[in-house]
Design brief:
Elements (H helix, E strand, L loop, with lengths): L3 H17 L16 E3 L4 H10 L5 E6 L2 E7 H8 L4 H5 L4 H8 L4 E4 L4 H9 L10 E6 L2 E5 L1 H38 L9 H18 L3 E8 L2 H8 L1 H23 L6 E6 L2 E7 L3 H17 L15 E8 L7 H17 L5 E3 L4 E3 L3
Parallel strand pairs: 1-2, 4-5, 10-11
Antiparallel strand pairs: 2-3, 5-6, 7-9, 7-10, 8-9, 11-12
Helix pairs in contact: 1-7, 6-7, 9-10, 10-11
């Protein structure tokens, strides 16, 4: 049975870990911002000289007695200086005078504001303010001026990281989902296909072989005298025996048909196994079954309580048919099961092919 809670825990863990590693410094405080504060009572030429020496400086933060007074952007400052008599009016006079003409509703944000949130608020401003720099309060009464262009670049970077993260998360969840599907189709003890997967696969391949009008064969095998084995050696030894037999069956089928061949080895129930062999006629199926029987016997698993041999053996029944519209997969199972019953009643440790009475005895 698949443990869904484990899957949910895995999904939650993947999501949490991805989120925890997402942009640990994705706030305004992590961005480069200019440290240029000037008292508004200073003459305008103080700002003019600074802007001239630092071409990338987006503007100036104005303070009055240490308190935030306002902000004037490079663009607005230079615009007022370029007006007729602008230099004469504003360079020698206090910045407070200039600010009366050039003041705007500047955007003030705390340093812990998320980059995406800050960019969203900045873009909501009126058109003529859209590209104004932002004042960031790093800590109480400590301000920096942030270029809007730098904010947009940071936002693009965040979105890129978010897309990469979502892609990574999707891949991890896809792997987890594939693991869930795989676990749902495997027998917990033997790690070969379980009964649910067997039923699905047989129906799928039955339909495919019906379309192609090709043979499909089914082998059902059973460990001989397994109840006696459990009673004698205990259930842990019984589980180990089942695992060994399952491994031998799968390895043998893969060795004969190739690992890429469309066969399926499944635990049918208890000590019983089933092998679906698409595109395989009766003769090939009998050859495979006989090889499996020999390989399991060659494991030399001691079984003193067996009525057949002093080692673990297998009995196997086979049915093979070209699927027709009036025949169901259940009929194939029934015929293979009947053949297995014949193998049991005729002495065990043998292979029987349904209806044809083809019996192979190799002791």
């Amino acid at each position: 049975m698949v443990n869904l809670s484990c899957y949910e825990s895995l999904v939650s863990s993947i999501s949490d870990n991805c989120l925890k590693t997402t942009f640990p410094e994705s706030t305004l405080q992590s961005l480069f911002a200019y440290d240029f504060q000037v008292d508004c009572n200073q003459p305008g030429e103080v700002v003019a000289v600074k802007l001239e020496s630092e071409p990338r400086l987006p503007g100036a933060i104005l303070t009055d007695k240490g308190q935030l007074f306002g902000m004037i952007s490079r663009q607005r400052f230079l615009e007022y200086l370029s007006r007729p008599f602008g230099r004469e009016l504003f360079l020698k006079r206090s910045l407070k005078t200039l600010y009366r003409f050039a003041s705007t509703n500047f955007l003030l944000m705390s340093g812990d504001t998320k980059i995406v949130e800050a960019a969203s608020k900045a873009l909501e401003r009126e058109v003529d303010l859209a590209y104004e720099p932002i004042v960031v309060e790093i800590k109480p009464s400590v301000y920096r001026i942030l270029d809007f262009h730098n904010l947009l670049i940071a936002q693009c970077h965040v979105h890129k990281l978010a897309n990469n993260l979502l892609h990574e998360l999707y891949q991890k969840l896809e792997i987890a989902n594939q693991e869930l599907v795989l676990q749902a189709s495997l027998d917990g003890l033997t790690q070969i296909a379980n009964r649910r997967r067997f039923d699905q696969y047989l129906s799928q391949k039955w339909f495919q072989m019906e379309q192609q009008q090709n043979f499909i064969s089914l082998i059902i095998g059973d460990i001989d005298c397994f109840k006696s084995y459990n009673d004698t050696y205990g259930h842990q030894a019984g589980d180990k025996c089942i695992k060994q037999v399952a491994s031998a069956m799968k390895q043998t089928v893969n060795l004969i048909t190739g690992t890429n061949y469309e066969n399926l080895v499944a635990r049918y129930g208890g000590e019983e196994f089933a092998i679906v062999l698409p595109s395989t006629n009766a003769a090939k199926a009998v050859f495979i079954a006989e090889k499996i029987r020999s390989e399991v016997k060659a494991l030399n698993i001691i079984h003193q309580a067996s009525k057949v041999s002093n080692h673990v053996t297998l009995s196997l029944g086979i049915a093979s048919v070209v699927p027709q519209i009036n025949i169901s997969p259940e009929r194939l199972i029934s015929e293979a099961d009947k053949a297995l019953y014949q193998a049991k009643t005729q002495g065990r440790n043998r292979v029987i092919l349904s209806e044809k009475g083809w019996e192979l005895n190799n002791y």
